[in-house]
């Protein structure tokens, strides 16, 4: 599809969805529940090599739970990370494309079932009733590639510059931009230099599909590195390819204030997909149930997030199809009230 303006692309999609759209939930959490071993620097991207059928199954679970946007399994899939595992550049590029193809396959299965009358949420004017669905190609941060938890700190050191980050991400962004995805999701962005690098890359490469940016925060005021969320949102707001700005992999209790900060600097749609409120220990590589939010409490926040200005809502790490199903119900009720 040709690039539409930010207001047109997601605006049109949100109207199709009834004013609010549902983003999917945690991928790795579900892959592990289905038996995948993700103790690997490639994390969920390991399944692209070992068990792509599980990825497709998880995407489908989220679609059946009411997700309008499914995010590909390429978050930790970097060409450099694949090469470190002995996977050639060509194979790595094929795996990146495969991550999007698997998501598109899940969408096709879902739509096929919808056309047989299994679902009745959305009438697209052809007599078929289904949820409209976008596929987003995930790009994780440089810190995610390091697999040392530094995407949760954003502290990369003085040697890492905007140019270093552009060089690191460039080929992956090129491949994903031409993979058949509807948009690119730059996720868990921890600092402003990476946001700047992504924004420059989109323009330098004349990427023809839209993008959204989501940042992570540990305090409700700043992104993970300590950079101001408003400053980061301003950097990407000025990029014409950017169609949405928001927050992911952040505790639910911080989301409302972050939405308000972002709303002050952009008129683009705001998206939020928090984690369960648990904390990730990058050294031990495990989740610590410090302040986990029970599923029903997580969902109780949704109306507040919408009132603060968010229009695309889902879940990140440790959320499940049950979480997404509950979010979908809340947003459907709001849509009917609008």
From TrEMBL:
Per the record's keyword annotation, is Magnesium included, yes or no?
no
Q: What is the lineage of its organism?
A: Eukaryota, Viridiplantae, Streptophyta, Embryophyta, Tracheophyta
- What is the protein name for this chain? Hcy-binding domain-containing protein
Query: What GO annotations for molecular function exist for this entry?
Result: S-adenosylmethionine-homocysteine S-methyltransferase activity; zinc ion binding
Q: Which cofactor does it need?
A: Zn(2+)
Q: Which domain of life is it from?
A: Eukaryota
Source species of the chain:
Solanum commersonii (Commerson's wild potato)
**Residue ranges annotated for the Hcy-binding domain, each copy included:** 9-331
List the GO biological process terms: methionine biosynthetic process; methylation; S-methylmethionine cycle
Methyltransferase keyword on record: yes
């Amino acid at each position: 599809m040709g690039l539409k303006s930010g207001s047109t692309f997601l605006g049109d999609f949100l109207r199709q969805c009834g004013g609010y759209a549902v983003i999917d939930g945690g991928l790795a959490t579900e892959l592990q529940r289905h038996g995948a071993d993700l103790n690997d620097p490639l994390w969920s991207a390991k399944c692209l090599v070992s068990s792509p059928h599980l990825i497709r199954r998880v995407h489908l679970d989220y679609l059946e739970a009411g997700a309008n946007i499914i995010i590909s399994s390429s978050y930790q899939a970097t060409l450099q990370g694949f090469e470190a595992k002995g996977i050639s550049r060509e194979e790595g590029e094929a795996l990146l494309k495969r991550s999007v193809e698997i998501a598109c396959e899940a969408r096709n299965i879902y739509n096929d079932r919808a056309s047989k009358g299994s679902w009745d949420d959305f009438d697209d004017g052809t007599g078929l009733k289904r949820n409209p669905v976008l596929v987003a190609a995930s790009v994780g941060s440089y810190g995610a590639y390091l697999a040392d938890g530094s995407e949760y700190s954003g502290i990369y050191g003085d040697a890492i510059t905007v140019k270093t980050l552009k060089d690191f991400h460039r080929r992956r962004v090129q491949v994903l931009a031409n993979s058949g995805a509807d948009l690119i999701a730059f996720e868990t962005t921890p600092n402003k230099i990476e946001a700047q690098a992504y924004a420059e890359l989109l323009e330098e490469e004349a990427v023809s599909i839209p993008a959204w940016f989501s940042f992570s925060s540990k305090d409700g005021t700043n992104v993970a590195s300590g950079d101001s969320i408003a400053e980061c949102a301003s950097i990407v707001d000025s990029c014409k390819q950017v169609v949405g700005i928001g927050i992911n992999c952040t505790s639910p209790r911080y989301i409302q204030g972050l939405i308000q900060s972002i709303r002050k600097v952009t008129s683009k749609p705001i998206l939020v997909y928090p984690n369960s409120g648990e904390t990730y220990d990058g050294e031990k590589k495990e989740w610590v149930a410090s302040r986990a939010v029970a599923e029903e409490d997580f969902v109780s926040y949704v109306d507040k997030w919408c009132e603060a200005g968010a229009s695309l809502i889902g879940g990140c790490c440790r959320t499940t199809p049950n979480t997404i199903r509950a979010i979908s119900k809340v947003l459907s009720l709001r849509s009917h009230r609008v």
